[in-house]
Description:
single chain; 87 residues; alpha+beta; three-stranded antiparallel beta sheet; two-stranded antiparallel sheet; 33% helix; binds zinc ion
Amino acid sequence: MPEIKCSNKNCNRLWWYKGKAPFYATCPACLRKVNISKNRTGRQQLEPKPPETREETINRILARDTQKTTESECERLKKIEESTKGF
Ligand SMILES: [Zn+2]
């Protein structure tokens, strides 16, 4: 979601725009209609990610540990395998 800055110079409110309107957002402070594309700050707030699947967890750990996989790492991976079996 984009961050928007109110175009009202007396307000200058910053907020994360969560709505679906393509052009105008209403400022939560002064209720002015603000042009989204002109007044976005360029910052993006990341949407919360959905919980990763068992495969994604394992792939991520494998990818990260490819360079330094030791015996204990293998044990840890096995434990992760066990703990994620219910997925
Ligand atoms: Zn405002």
